[in-house]
Each structure stands twice: as structure tokens, then as C-alpha cells.
Specification:
Length: 568
């Protein structure tokens, strides 16, 4: 719709005013009185042409009015042009929204997008803060896949480092005799790690023992390698349960340990190219050009030990060589902005320019209820937050027992509770700190997952009563729309552009905002316009709009990792 209007408007301005290279942008006004589309291009080009905005706008409106798909075009205000499309044109455009709800098939010639997210540390349970990277990253994977792009969903696990030496020492000293590491729970492993740090102030030798144990692990000590592999196995099994509840899937979980043998080659290349230079005490650093304003970047310690930065350089090199990606998205909180600027600049200096690197940053999570922020002084476990969400959803179901219909209250509570938590994150601008409020997130009336779930179930209920299992054909034409029909149609038409915008900007909240608006417009339509009892051709049209609204809601929610019930 907007593409065709843009082409026509540009042609009119070029012909009437000899104005080449003009850019015409359209908005979709919420107020029906402002048309189906509006542009302020006349205001933008008036100075270039030396003509009044209203004069230019009138010429554009007159020209657009002659187009077969335009019912009328009018000048408004100081030079806006408002356009109303014919019912036939709007109905034809609805099929675009229907096709947008179906994922495209990835082209073989397309380079993949690598999305790195979640990034848990082995031997530690996920904290509630991990949900931010996890669900934002998964949503971005979903958006790119839906657009037909190959995606590599990458859980870059922290499975290497001195912490494993510390854990090995704690296991040896305070673990249960005869109990193998593979038989421990993740909480039991965490308790051992915590005890190491509790004992360290009174036993100065512990830290040295921890470093020595990790050194032996790096050198291939068989017993320590077996211990490490068992710890990784226990951790991944625990993580899998949480990821399943969150509707999260990864293509690979290659972590830091994979690059153990790759870092020396990176060091050698950096030295050869003069990117790595000697730092204090024999360390290696990267000194950036003054115009970047970046402080030095440490890539090797003075004792010869590598760092997280060294492994990150190795993994960038591996990803470029193995996948030849078009870009790599690192979904990590904004506290790491400086680090990623240093990493990306180092990659540039090494002349690895085969891909685009992007830091998709996000703010921090805060809870409106202070009691939810910590538990016994420790970071709140994500598992406990998910359980709390489901418990509260169960209470909501109990409160609405008279109106909620379900054959499996447990499954519905899980769907509502997890959905509330996820949507509460994805519906907010990721660049801002997120405040989570249980009452708001589990409301049936506000901008929340249960509201989306209830609206979808309402639409599916109408379709069941009509005996429809799938989509229905959209009438080719109809004489006139009610206000509620027209507003719902216009909202549905925005779905393709919303998907593209959310994907291109890595901003999931744009999709969430659209889905909330769609729910509002569908419920207004449902309330004011009879559907099942309407006369033809209105009945066919309204059932088609109901089916398409349900499809778009379901597709959009799945992209946000939400599950929607057919009955509620």
C-alpha cells in the first residue's frame, strides 16, 4: 500500500515540479478522519521549490485522487495530504498481512545471521537477570528466521576459567566422599563454590590452590578434565529445563573452552600485524587510535595467561571462517558497551572486515516489589521467578474461574505466568531499565501477555462457533466499512512493516506494541460489530477479519516466544 502510494506521489512531484530524487514517507494515522495514510512531503520540499506547502499539497492531492485505488485525497493543516483508499484496495492489501504471517524459506545464497545470547556460566544456576539476554536474543532469532534469513542461535557458555579450579578445590575439600560430580545438583555445586569464597579470607592459600588446579586443567590433567566435563553436563541438563519453559532453542552452545587451542594463533597474528604491543610487566595490549577515545585493551596477562578478551577474538575469527555470516549480534547488557567497542575496534584493526559486528544492548531489571529483588542476600534464581509467575497466574485463573474456560489449568497457568514475565520484558524498550510489576503484567486489561492470550482465545472461539478451522477467503469488494472494520483492517495492514522494523532495529517492543494495538482494535470490533449474526457479505468479511486477527496474533506472539491458547 505505502510502496504504491510512494511511487505515485514521487511521480506527481517529479512531473509537476521537476523535482528529482524526492523521498515520500507515509504514516498510518490512528484517527479515521485523517485518512488511511498521510504525508507531510509538501512541507519538506516547499523551501527547495520556493512554493507554499499548501500549493504543493493540493497538486499532490489532486494527482493522487485520480489513482484507481484512492477514494479521495485531501489537503489538511499546514500542508499535509491525507489519503483514503477504496474498500477494494484495502481488501486486496489484506492478503499481504496474511502472507506476512507465514515464514519465508531461507535462500541458499544468503549468509547467516549469528545471534549470541543468554551466555550463562557453567556450575551456576541462571539468575533472573539472565532472562533479559535470553528472551531478547531468542526473539531476534525468530524475527530473522521469519524473514527468511538463515540464523545461528548461539548460547556462548562460560565454561572455562579460574572458577573451575576453585570449584575443583572446593569439591576435593568439602564434597561428599565417593559422590561423583556428575551426581551433584547444580545447587550443590554452587554451594561448594560459595563455600570456597567464604573460606578464602581465613585461608590465603585457597586462591593459589584454585589457580594451580585450573593450570592443571588447562594442561590436560585427566582427573580434572573428567571433573570439568561432569560439571558441564550437570549444568547443561539444568539449563535445558529452564530454556524449555521459556520456549528457547539454540543451534549451538560452543563456549569459551572450545577456543583453548586457538588463542595462540590470534596472539601471533596480532603481534605480526603490530596490533598487539607490549604492556606493563610483559603483558600484551591493544592501543587504539586517539580519535576513538578508547583505553588500552588487555589481551594477555603479564604471566602469559589469556583472558576473556583473547577468547572473544578467537571466537570472532572462528565464526567468520566457519559461517561467513552477514552479521553477528551480541545480546549483552549495556554495562559491557566499552568492552564491545574495544573488541570491535580490535577486529577492525586486525582487518577482519568480513562481517558486521553489533552489540545489542539492554538495560537492567528492577522489581516493583522490593522483596523480589534478592533472596537471602543472593541473586534471585530465574527458576524461582518462573515458579512465582506460574503461582500468581494460578491465582488469577482462580479469581476468574467464572469466565475462564480450560481443560488444563496447570498448562494454562504455565502459559500465562511465563508469558507474563517474557512479555513484561519484550514489551518495553530494551535500551531502558525494566521495572517488573506483577499486577500489571498479569492484568487481563492492560498491555500484558494474558490480554493477548485472552484476545486470541476470544477470536478462536468465534471461529469455532462458525465451524471454521482455518482462514476464510476475503471478499473481493464491499460497499462500505464500519469504523471498527476499517480501523481493524488498517492495523492488520501494518503487520509486514512492523515485522521488518522490529527486525531491522533489533527492537522487539515494536512488535509487542503492535500486537497490543491489534488486540484493542479487535476487541472494539468484536464489541460493536456483530460477527456470527451479521448479514452477508458483512458476515464473511468479519469472519475473515477475525481469522486473520487470530493468525497475526498467534504468529506475532510466537515470534516473541509466547504461547497462545485456543481456549481460555
Amino acid at each position: 500500500m505505502f510502496d504504491e502510494l510512494t511511487t505515485q506521489a514521487a511521480a506527481i512531484l517529479t512531473k509537476e515540479f521537476t523535482l528529482p530524487d524526492v523521498s515520500v514517507f507515509w504514516q498510518s494515522p490512528r484517527e479515521l478522519s485523517h485518512g488511511d495514510a498521510a504525508t507531510n512531503v509538501a512541507l519538506q520540499v516547499s523551501k527547495r521549490l520556493g512554493r507554499s506547502p499548501n500549493e504543493i499539497a493540493q497538486v499532490l492531492a489532486d494527482g493522487l485522487s485520480k489513482h484507481a485505488d484512492v477514494a479521495r485525497a485531501e489537503v489538511a493543516g499546514a500542508g499535509y495530504v491525507n489519503v483514503w483508499l477504496t474498500p477494494k484496495a484495502l481488501l486486496t492489501e489484506l492478503n499481504r498481512s496474511r502472507s506476512a504471517a507465514v515464514a519465508k524459506v531461507a535462500g541458499k545464497e544468503l549468509k547467516p545471521v549469528i545471534v549470541e545470547y543468554s551466555q550463562p556460566n557453567i556450575a551456576k544456576p541462571l539468575g533472573v537477570h539472565h532472562i533479559l539476554s535470553t528472551v531478547i536474543g531468542q526473539c531476534l532469532c525468530n524475527l530473522h528466521r521469519h524473514a527468511g534469513e538463515p540464523v545461528v542461535a548461539w548460547n556462548y557458555i562460560g565454561d572455562w576459567g579460574t572458577q573451575f579450579g576453585k570449584l575443583a578445590v572446593a569439591y576435593e575439600r568439602w564434597g561428599k566422599k565417593g559422590k561423583k560430580a556428575k551426581d551433584y545438583t547444580l545447587d550443590e555445586l554452587l554451594n561448594l563454590y560459595v563455600r570456597f569464597h567464604e573460606e578464602a579470607p581465613s585461608d590465603p592459600t585457597l586462591e593459589a590452590h584454585g589457580r594451580e588446579a585450573f593450570r592443571k586443567l588447562e594442561q590436560g590433567d585427566r582427573a580434572l578434565r573428567t571433573f570439568w566435563q561432569d560439571v558441564v553436563s550437570v549444568s547443561k541438563s539444568s539449563l535445558a529445563v529452564i530454556y524449555e519453559r521459556l520456549h528457547v532453542r539454540f543451534d549451538t552452545d560452543i563456549g569459551e573452552s572450545f577456543y583453548e587451542d586457538s588463542m595462540q594463533a590470534i596472539i601471533d597474528e596480532g603481534l605480526k600485524k603490530g596490533v598487539f604491543t607490549a604492556g606493563e610487566g610483559g603483558s600484551l595490549i591493544v592501543e587504539f587510535p586517539p580519535e576513538t577515545g578508547l583505553p588500552p585493551y588487555l589481551v594477555r596477562k603479564s604471566d602469559g595467561a589469556t583472558l576473556y578478551s583473547t577468547r572473544d577474538l578467537a571466537q570472532v575469527r572462528f565464526r567468520i571462517d566457519t559461517y561467513h555470516p552477514q552479521n553477528i549480534l551480541h545480546v549483552v547488557d549495556m554495562a559491557q558497551q566499552l568492552y564491545f567497542r574495544q573488541l570491535f575496534e580490535t577486529v577492525k584493526m586486525l582487518q577482519w572486515n568480513a562481517t558486521v559486528l553489533e552489540h545489542v544492548s539492554f538495560g537492567r531489571m528492577r522489581f516493583a516489589e522490593k522483596g523480589m529483588s534478592t533472596r537471602k542476600g543472593n541473586i534471585l534464581k530465574l527458576e524461582h521467578v518462573l515458579d512465582e509467575a506460574v503461582r500468581r497466574a494460578t491465582e488469577v485463573i482462580e479469581e476468574h474461574r467464572g469466565t475462564i474456560q480450560t481443560e488444563d489449568e496447570g498448562a494454562l497457568a504455565e502459559m500465562m505466568g511465563i508469558g507474563a514475565l517474557v512479555y513484561g520484558i519484550l514489551s518495553q524498550n530494551r535500551k531502558m531499565d525494566i521495572t517488573f510489576d506483577w499486577e500489571k503484567m498479569l492484568s487481563f486489561e492492560g498491555n500484558s501477555a494474558p490480554y493477548l492470550q485472552y484476545t486470541h482465545a476470544r477470536a478462536r472461539s468465534v471461529l469455532r462457533k462458525a465451524g471454521m478451522n482455518g482462514a476464510t477467503s476475503i471478499p473481493e469488494t464491499i460497499a462500505v466499512f464500519t469504523d471498527a472494520e476499517r480501523l481493524l483492517i488498517r492495523t492488520l495492514l501494518l503487520f509486514p512493516s512492523v515485522l521488518e522494523d522490529a527486525r531491522a532495529t533489533s527492537m522487539p517492543h515494536k512488535l509487542a506494541t503492535f500486537l497490543y494495538q491489534l488486540c484493542q482494535d479487535f476487541n472494539a470490533f468484536y464489541t460493536t460489530d456483530p460477527i456470527l449474526k451479521a448479514q452477508e457479505p458483512a458476515r464473511t468479511l468479519r469472519l475473515a477479519l477475525t481469522a486473520l486477527a487470530a493468525t497475526v496474533l498467534h504468529t506475532g506472539a510466537e515470534l516473541l516466544t509466547l504461547r497462545l491458547p485456543d481456549q481460555m
